[in-house]
């Protein structure tokens, strides 16, 4: 039933899009027909665009997202544990994390380009800085919320002080950390388009940016659709990972 409703919604949107294109309320450079976007899908998948196929552009963007998220999520978990466990570090680092979290990514893209050039480094760093704060905040809040009974029970059973963070605190905080990871990946994925505005080819964001310069609206729309569909797939994979890592979420024991 849910699948039928989703397919019906997609078909309805396609029909509305086609009718608007047929009526020519706006010129094709503003609203291209669905068939034009489909033709671009076939053309870019076989002949390529700006020297790379559509799959090549997408894989380049996904590679940047994976690298930036791996570094950002790893750093965010470590930083969040330190903020949540060590009061002195919480006082020192919490304002810095909040400061970075409130900045839009484009605010420091230019600075990263000055520091690292126009290669891959500024893009990965931008995605790292986009992914790190949500994970750090979620981890720190989750760590501070671990019940004292868990800690006391672990100490009573002979757990050493250095064992408690990864044997007790981290597993207890895992549901909130996974939620922070989902938020971080979403933020990083929306940031990749901004990251690829500078020397972003190959890359979906770079492809869209390049097509925009030449008013190739069908390529722009194709890029937007690919970004949205791949984003849905990534979120589905993260939800699956969430169910595997935190099977007890939502269950009352």
Instruction: Give the count of structural domains.
Output: 1
Total beta strands:
0
Sketch the topology as an H/E string, one letter per element. Answer: HHHHHHHHHH
CATH topology category name:
MetI-like fold
Radius of gyration over all CA atoms, rounded: 22 Å
**N- and C-termini, Cα separation:** 31 Å
Strand content: under 5%
Task: Assign the CATH architecture.
Answer: Orthogonal Bundle
Structural class: mainly alpha
Question: What oligomeric assembly is this protein in?
Answer: single chain
Query: Helical residue percent?
Result: over 70%
Low-confidence region ranges: none
Query: How large is the count of helical segments?
Result: 10
Q: So what's the overall shape?
A: elongated
Q: What is the name of the CATH class? A: Mainly Alpha
Largest sheet: none
The chain-level mean pLDDT equals 85
CATH superfamily: MetI-like
């Amino acid at each position: 039933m849910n699948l039928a409703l989703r397919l019906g919604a997609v078909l309805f949107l396609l029909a509305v899009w086609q009718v608007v294109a047929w009526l020519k309320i706006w010129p094709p450079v503003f609203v291209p027909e669905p068939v034009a976007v489909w033709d671009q899908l076939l053309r870019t998948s076989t002949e390529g665009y700006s020297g790379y196929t559509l799959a090549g552009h997408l894989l380049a963007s996904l590679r940047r997202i994976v690298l930036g998220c791996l570094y950002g999520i790893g750093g965010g978990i470590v930083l969040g544990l330190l903020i949540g466990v060590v009061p002195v570090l919480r006082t020192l680092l919490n304002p810095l994390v909040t400061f970075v979290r409130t900045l839009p990514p484009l605010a420091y893209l230019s600075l990263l380009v000055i520091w690292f050039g126009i290669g891959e480094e500024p893009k990965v760093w931008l995605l790292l800085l986009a992914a790190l704060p949500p994970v750090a905040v979620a981890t720190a809040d989750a760590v501070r919320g671990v019940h004292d009974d868990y800690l006391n029970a672990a100490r009573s059973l002979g757990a050493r002080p250095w064992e408690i963070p990864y044997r007790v605190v981290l597993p207890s905080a895992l549901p909130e950390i996974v939620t922070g990871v989902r938020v971080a990946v979403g933020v990083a994925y929306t940031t990749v388009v901004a990251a690829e505005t500078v020397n972003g080819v190959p890359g979906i964001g770079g492809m869209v940016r390049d097509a925009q310069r030449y008013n190739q609206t069908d390529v722009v729309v194709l890029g937007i659709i690919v970004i949205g569909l791949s984003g849905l797939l990534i979120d589905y994979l993260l939800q699956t990972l969430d169910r595997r890592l935190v099977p007890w979420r939502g269950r009352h024991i």
